[in-house]
Amino acid sequence: MALLSDLINLHLTDSTPKIIAEYIWIGGSGMDLRSKAKTLSGPVDDPKKLPKWNYDGSSTGQAPGEDSEVILYPQAIFKDPFRRGEHILVMCDTYTPAGEPIPTNKRCAAAKIFSSPEVEKEVPWYGIEQEYTLLQKDINWPLGWPQGGFPGPQGPYYCGIGSDKAFGRDIVDAHYKACLYAGINISGINGEVMPGQWEFQVGPSVGISAGDELWVARYILERITEIAGVVVSFDPKPIPGDWNGAGAHTNYSTKSTREEGGYEVIKKAIGKLGLKHKEHIAAYGEGNERRLTGRHETADINTFLWGVANRGASIRVGRDTEKEGKGYFEDRRPASNMDPYVVTSMIAETTLLWNKS
């Protein structure tokens, strides 16, 4: 008699050419990921060749019950690290039956910005540092923390090792390898300042692909924590008090900033970002005011400040960029629960399309 684990790991290639495509989309809260599976007649490597699908938007907070159908448009394909073989994960965005993007579809507007000639010629690169906190399932308290109590103060946990400093490394490493398998351009991981908090980095990724890759990396992380019986939180300040919050620092460069004379281009771009600080803050994640306090490696939410190697600034420029006169800069304002489609496209729009005059 086959065991459940045998059936989960069953290889289908010996018996059928059919594959399973897991369609993924963003739900009504703007942070909840949803997915369902579809059988296809054979392998597919181009999202344009995938069929559109639909779902009940009244059950995800995205449509009324009397007109509940929402249409999924496949946009990006990744290898499925859970089913493996020829099976795929499909990142989708969401539309009405008439073909209009629904209000929670932030990808559509971002794609328009990234497809504009002024943006395309600058080949914008993004590297997103996604911080998150692992929580014990039944008590919503960070992994490794005593129930109802607190660990020792921050200091030994950042990039720390040992069972008294690093909590959940098996989950983190499983996620790292699963993202690499999927074809996500994940560039690293590390333990963060608060115990139970971790970070992974996606990029450099060009344009709209940065958002696709980060959302699918989040999906894979949630699936792995589901298996492990742990909860992942993207709350920007999961524990009040003298504990670091969680952000999604967004590193950014363009063709012009990467070439000779790029440092002057960077300074002009930062100047534009400063003039639109309030608009960016409003779009950089819910609850960010609890994180951007001017403490714990942040600038105050109402203050725009930039500097070289300054982790208490809104925008940080690296020493190497200053020394070489070209490179990239880091927007440290986005919260861990930000929408990468919104943040990446907004940075491109402000720095490349907006004329401050």
- Radius of gyration (CA) equals 21 Å
Portion in strands: 15-25%
Shape: globular
Helical proportion, percent range: 25-40%
Number of strands: 14
Indicate the structural class.
Answer: alpha+beta
Give the integer mean of the pLDDT values.
96
Describe the main β-sheet briefly: 9 strands, mixed
* N/C terminus separation: 74 Å
Order of helices and strands: HEEEEEHHEEHEEHEEHHHEEHEH
Low-confidence stretches: none
What's the helix count? 10
Description:
The chain is an alpha+beta fold and 357 residues long. Helix content is 27%, strand content 25%. The strands form two sheets. Strands 6, 7, 8, 9, 10, 11, 12, 13 and 14 form a nine-stranded mixed β-sheet that branches. A five-stranded mixed β-sheet has the order 2-1-5-4-3, with helices on one face.
Short key terms for the protein model shown above:
nine-stranded mixed sheet, five-stranded mixed sheet, 27% helix, single chain, 357 residues, 10 helices, 14 strands, alpha+beta
Outline of the structure:
The chain contains 10 helices and 14 strands.
Sequence-ordered SSE layout with sheet pairings:
Blueprint: H1 4-8, E1 19-26, E2 33-40, E3 53-56, E4 69-79, E5 88-95, H2 107-114, H3 117-120, E6 125-136, E7 141-142, H4 169-182, E8 186-191, E9 197-206, H5 209-228, E10 230-233, E11 248-253, H6 255-258, H7 262-275, H8 277-283, E12 306-308, E13 315-317, H9 319-324, E14 329-331, H10 340-353
Helix pairs in contact: 2-10, 4-5, 7-10
